[in-house]
Amino acid sequence: MRFRLTPRETSFYDMFAASADNIVTGSKLLMELLGADSSARAEIAERMRAAEHAGDDATHAILHQLNASFITPFDREDIYRLASSLDDVMDFMEEAVDLVVLYQIEELPRGVEQQIEVLARAAELTAEAMPNLRTLNHLPEFWIEVNRLENQADQIHRKLLAHLFNGKYDAIEVLKLKQIVDVLEEAADAFEKVANTVETIAVKES
């Protein structure tokens, strides 16, 4: 562990935890979308937009604190990368919900629920991991499991694409549904970037 003569700004830990907790809120709204009929989806999308705005506020707070801090708990570029990756997760989840509403999707293809379940689990793990940045304890289990989940998400995504192109859907519907499942895959990729950044921080600080 590095020896530091100057006190470090510790509010980052609480802000990262708040950002991750907000992502859990977003993942629950995604799960809620699965069981909602089309008439209820607009209201869910509105709540998701509010959560996404809260995520933006959390990210801006982290970056403001970064600019105002002389000494940071870990490297500035890693703080920026972690904040940005958390923000990306929320953005992709909000985009997926918005597309379902905008495209007036009547029924999501089988397999989307598996994508969302993976995202919900990754969100829970991320929220559990953020407080551990203070001590760097139990973090390897986090990034190993999130990377495993991302590999699982890749497999689900490939199966969904094969299903979409099997001739059951017309061309326009394929384009709409593919954009939604692609955005959900991007959310899984963003979770992996969060995990990889946490790993980088742990290696540098150990």
TrEMBL record:
It comes from the Bacteria. Pfam families: PhoU_div (PF01865). Gene3D superfamilies: Phosphate transport system protein phou homolog 2, domain 2 (1.20.58.220). PANTHER family: UPF0111 PROTEIN YKAA (PTHR37298). Belongs to the UPF0111 family. This is DUF47 family protein.
